[in-house]
Amino acid sequence: MSTETNLAAKGGSVTETDNASLCYQCSRCSAGCPLAEEMDLLPHQVIHLLSLGEEDEVLRSNTMWMCAGCYTCATRCPNDIDITTIMDEARAKAIAKGIKCPNPDVLTFHKSFLRDLGRRGRIFEMRMMAENNICKGKPFDNADLGRKLFLKGRLKIFPPKSLRGFKRWMKELLKR
Amino acid sequence: MSSRIALYPGCSLEGTSSSFETSVAAVFEKLGIEYDTLKDWNCCGATSAHALDHELYMALNLRNLSLAEEQGYEEIFAPCAACYHRLASANLELSNNADLADALKSETGLNYRGSVKVRNVLDLLTNVVGRERIEAAIEVPLSGIRVACYYGCLNTRIPRSDCFDDREYPMSMDRIVTALGAEVIDWSYKTECCGASLFMTAPAASAKLCGRILKDAEARDVNCIAVACPLCQNNLDAKQEEIRAKAGIPRAIPVVFITQLMGLAYGIDERHLQLESSIVPFNLKPAGATT
Fold it and tell me: Which residues in B lie closer than 8 A to residue A105 (C-beta atoms)?
């Protein structure tokens, strides 16, 4: 821990978003963000809005949905704000508030992934990818990629080992 | 080496990137580094768990960490950079945030004292194996091969932690590749993001990022890009033809795992290296090779 001011890292009910007020708007996060050009609000603008309490504008933006989770911003922030985790919290809040996702393919993928994870405890890539295609309404998306990987023996046709008791364990966890 | 190491393979190494697992196994056998595979491991949640549900991501990784502790391991070795990042970040948060740790433990029924250390392949090779042993196992020096070492994001970027290497200009892989007898180049994209899971969800954005990485490597006249992450390998390799066409890159560039490159220098059989499983073929023979 490099600063004493990181509220979220100290625990309790404090979230990473509460650390937004530590920002002094140097914009280093936005300068280094590899996806900045795809975002309607830049990372430093997201942090600014959050520290002003303007959460709704953030939750309606596409910023957290275009974030790749590379942690460049989080590791460069001079005030040690974990901006990447703030993006995670913004995604969760937008879903909880029922705000329409501006990049539905991103949300559909994460849901397909977690559904597959919940089945066995390990990802069955081929099924996950096929199911994701169906859920996003593009059944032949990445068909060429799938064919190439399959021909190279990289796309396994049998599911991985199923972990005993995992399905129920994760179901209980998600019920909380 | 005294401490017991558990390999955490993760889903990619058992699936689309099995060449990483087989080359890790062959290279570490040659180096005399013993490890077991963690029993009963579950998926780390990759990007999807932490992207939507922080507690789910923490619980998934708590399960793996507590399995390692229970099975008597002091270290987890996670070759996949994403698995490594999740395990190490969760480990750090569990030790820094006692309230969250206690809540998770009671919710999941898992116990974890926090005794396990998490390492990735570059950390393990640099700080446990060391250059001397890496060099001692060489049979065919990789002379005449120019390599761009690409670290990606997740091997070096765990917030609020001490990194095993420099975050902004890491050198651990460069030193390993140099030790193998190959020539490494300086370039601008060694830690720039390839787009990670956006490859699947926002392919145009990811292709732009991959195009820049490949373009810089190509301009520096390399024979291959070396990586230590299945996502980096897949994103730069699998759709390279389309990416090259869009970005105007004249030549294909093979993307290999660092352990595949090591295996080549150690004279390890192709059966274990699976160089042929890459979409862009890597058929370079080192100048010192006899066949």
Answer: 201-202
User: For chain B, which domains are there?
Assistant: 5-121 (1.20.1050.140), 141-277 (3.40.50.11810)
**Is B196 in Cβ contact with A69 (below 8 Å)?**
yes
- Assembly ipTM: 0.95
How many contacts, defined by CB atoms under 8 Å, are there between A and B? Answer: 167
Distance CA B243, CA B208 (A): 8
Pairing of strands B146-149, B117-119: unpaired
Residues A154, B11: C-beta atoms closer than 8 Å: no
- CB contact under 8 Å between B198 and A68, yes or no, is yes
Which of A152, A163, A167, A169 to probe the B interface (max B CBs under 10 A)?
A152
- Rounded to whole angstroms, the Cα distance separating A5 from A19 reads 8
Query: For the whole prediction, is pTM greater than 0.80?
Result: yes
Is the CATH number 1.10.1060.10 carried by domain A7-96?
A: yes
| H-helix or E-strand spanning residue B7 | strand B5-7
Q: What percent of chain B has pLDDT over 90?
A: 96
d(CA A90, CA B52): 9
